[in-house]
Write a structure and sequence with these properties.
The protein is an alpha+beta fold. It folds into two domains: about 10-85; about 105-165, no CATH class. Helices cover about 40% and strands about 20% of the residues. The protein is built from four helices and four strands, in the order H-H-H-E-E-E-E-H. It has helices at about 10-45, 55-80, 85, 170-180; strands spanning about 105-110, 120-135, 140-150, 160. Strands 1, 2, 3 and 4 form a four-stranded mixed beta sheet that branches. A hairpin with a 6-residue loop joins strand 3 and strand 4. The longest helix has about 35 residues, at about 10-45. The model has no long low-confidence stretch (mean pLDDT about 75).
Length: about 180
């Protein structure tokens, strides 16, 4: 459907759009008429007075005519629709973001030592955050694991971070994996 804001202000352009729309409607009416005739002919062949005397291969021919007509209609409709309308919206993908309404349990994994090899104290420069869904019977919750990154301000020995946790799999998961 067209919005009033999308329409041009030029009267000649509006007339051209109206003529194109009428032509499109005429073509659609002709297609509908043609398809109705094909359906009526098929019904006559299948259920008419002499339907029992006719060859079953004739039904297949009628079906082929219907299929070719439907294919032609679909091709014409695709040619009529503008490219902007034809392109489908990309599907919204929600990877990694768990719903905000679920309760969260935060775990912070610190490195073993916050003292640099040079003897000075390390300062937090960032963190890796991962979320995983934990299912407690009749309750969902999100376990957030934070692993802060520490670096020394006096030397450039690198970044220290707590070791990543191993994935924790439920018994049910292992049972389904073994069957597989």
């Amino acid at each position: 459907m067209l919005n009033a804001a999308d329409l041009p202000d030029d009267i000649d352009a509006l007339k051209a759009m109206l003529v194109a729309s009428e032509a499109r409607n005429l073509r659609k009416d002709e297609r509908i008429e043609r398809l109705e005739k094909l359906v009526a002919a098929f019904k006559q062949a299948a259920f008419g007075r002499k339907s029992e005397k006719s060859d079953p291969d004739q039904f297949e021919l009628a079906l082929e005519d219907l299929e070719t007509a439907i294919t032609a209609v679909h091709a014409e409709e695709e040619a009529d629709t503008p490219v902007a309308r034809r392109s489908a919206k990309p599907r919204a993908v929600n990877r990694g973001a768990l719903p905000k309404h679920l309760p969260r349990i935060e775990e912070v994994i610190e490195p073993e030592s916050l003292t640099c090899a040079c003897g000075s104290c390390m300062h937090c420069i960032g963190e890796d955050v991962s979320e995983r869904l934990d299912i407690v019977p009749a309750q969902f919750r999100v376990i957030v694991t934070r692993r802060p990154k520490y670096a020394c301000r006096t030397c450039t020995d690198g970044v220290v971070q707590g070791e990543p946790m191993e994935r924790q799999w439920s018994e049910r998961h292992w049972r389904t994996c073994r069957r597989g």
